Amino acid sequence: MVMLVGTVLIGVAAHAKETPSGTISLTQLPAEARATDRLIRAGGPFTSAKDGVVFGNRERILPAERRGFYREYTVPTPGARNRGARRIVCGGHPPTAPQACYYSGDHYATFQQIVP
Fold first, then answer.
1. 5 has a pLDDT exceeding 60
2. Where does 2-116 show beta strands of DSSP type E?
3. Catalytic (active site) residue 93
4. 6 found inside a domain
5. β-strand 23-25 against 2-5: which pairing, if any?
6. Is 78 within the bounds of a domain?
7. 111 in a domain, yes or no?
8. Total of domains in the chain
């Protein structure tokens, strides 16, 4: 954001926290995301070695929590040659009984909280 003060421009960094953009029901998620949710609650086995690693929330879109609270999981994308952009991020302990989970279909640019 830039503010005009007299004839001097002062740059002000916008560091406001983002928030998840609404909710999505588990039944509205793609089939691959529903399968990933089942694997999270069963403790695996997961499709990627990176599944279950700590999610740092560097984007600050999810509610602020201590480091290690959130973990990320790959939602397979049909036809993708890599992990793709879809993820589920869950927070809470134990990881098999998360307090909250969020779906991102665009590699962390936006999140929707998953509701039953």
1. no
2. 2-5, 8-11, 23-25, 53-54, 70-74, 87-91, 100-104, 112-115
3. no
4. no
5. unpaired
6. yes
7. yes
8. 1
